[in-house]
């Protein structure tokens, strides 16, 4: 089972999740539970996926003061997910507090420590939107800066666009996890994504994990769509 493909379960209902996971079967071993699903069904989706033997990336993008994020990260560590995230713009102290909370809680509970990664710059942000936000650095330089900060804080990796993966890999090394949403097969609708690449290009740039949602979930035949992506990834 190839675990480099993470399918984003952006649904309101657990029924929809169960239908897709059943349809994709053994072809997909890693799923992403984001805000939409978590706020609708709570931990039920995580529990269901764990019972099915799937890995879970809990994409809640924690962003608050260090104490609040650390306490929240401790709570998420007990859920049995493989990976979850914070926003890097929460700052170095926030990321350090989260990393400490995850390690300490995993040790206390005697569970495997989930990977903790940081969102850099959302893949939906275009050059024009970036300019309107008023940052001095380019998107790329900001992503690299935040990736280095996340690494300094002891995090395991980052979420970034495939367009920045190669540079992150160079600067942060090959062990540092790079998770890339913004993945679109050739000719697929971009939806609200801006900084995109194909599955093959994302992997060639050095991404460890590709997050794909609507190109699969909104396809007429989600299984065929997922299999085509896996084939492009060279999945065995
Ligand atoms: O920068 C980011 C961070 C997270 N995401 C999430 O990934 C998926 C992408 O779904 P698609 O349907 O393939 O666009 C979605 O759940 C986002 O919340 C992201 O796109 N960009």
Automatic annotation (TrEMBL):
EC number(s) stated in the UniProt entry for this protein: 4.1.1.23
CC annotations in GO: cytosol
Keyword annotations of the record: Decarboxylase, Lyase, Pyrimidine biosynthesis
Residues the record marks as active site: 59 (for ompdecase activity), 61 (for ompdecase activity), 61 (proton donor), 64 (for ompdecase activity)
Enzymatic class: lyase
Catalytic activity, as annotated: orotidine 5'-phosphate + H(+) = UMP + CO2
Database matches in InterPro entries: Aldolase_TIM (IPR013785), OMPdecase (IPR014732), OMPdecase_AS (IPR018089), OMPdecase_bac (IPR047596), OMPdeCOase_dom (IPR001754), RibuloseP-bd_barrel (IPR011060)
Residues annotated for substrate binding in this entry: 10, 32, 59-68, 123, 184, 193, 213-214
Family, as annotated: Belongs to the OMP decarboxylase family. Type 1 subfamily.
Assembly notes: Homodimer.
The protein's name: Orotidine 5'-phosphate decarboxylase
Species of the source: Methylomusa anaerophila
């Amino acid at each position: 089972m190839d675990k480099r493909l993470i399918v984003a379960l952006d649904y309101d209902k657990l029924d929809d999740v169960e239908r897709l996971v059943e349809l994709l079967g053994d072809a997909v071993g890693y799923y992403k539970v984001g805000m939409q699903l978590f706020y609708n069904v709570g931990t039920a989706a995580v529990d269901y996926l764990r019972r099915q033997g799937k890995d879970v990336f809990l994409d809640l993008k924690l962003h608050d003061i260090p104490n609040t994020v650390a306490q929240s990260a401790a709570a998420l560590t007990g859920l049995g997910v493989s990976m979850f995230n914070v926003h890097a713009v929460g700052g170095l102290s926030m990321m350090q507090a989260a990393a400490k909370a995850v390690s300490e809680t995993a040790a206390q509970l005697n569970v495997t420590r989930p990977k903790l990664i940081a969102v850099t710059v959302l893949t939906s942000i275009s050059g024009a939107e970036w300019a309107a936000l008023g940052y001095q650095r380019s998107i790329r330089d900001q992503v690299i800066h935040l990736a280095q900060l996340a690494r300094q804080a002891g995090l395991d990796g980052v979420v970034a666009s495939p367009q920045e993966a190669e540079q992150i890999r160079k600067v942060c090394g090959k062990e540092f996890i790079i998770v890339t949403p913004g993945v679109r097969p050739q000719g697929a609708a971009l939806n609200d994504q801006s900084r995109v690449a194909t599955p093959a290009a994302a992997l060639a740039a050095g991404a460890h994990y590709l997050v794909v949602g609507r190109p699969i979930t909104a396809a007429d035949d989600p299984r065929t769509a997922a299999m085509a992506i896996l084939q492009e990834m060279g999945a065995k």
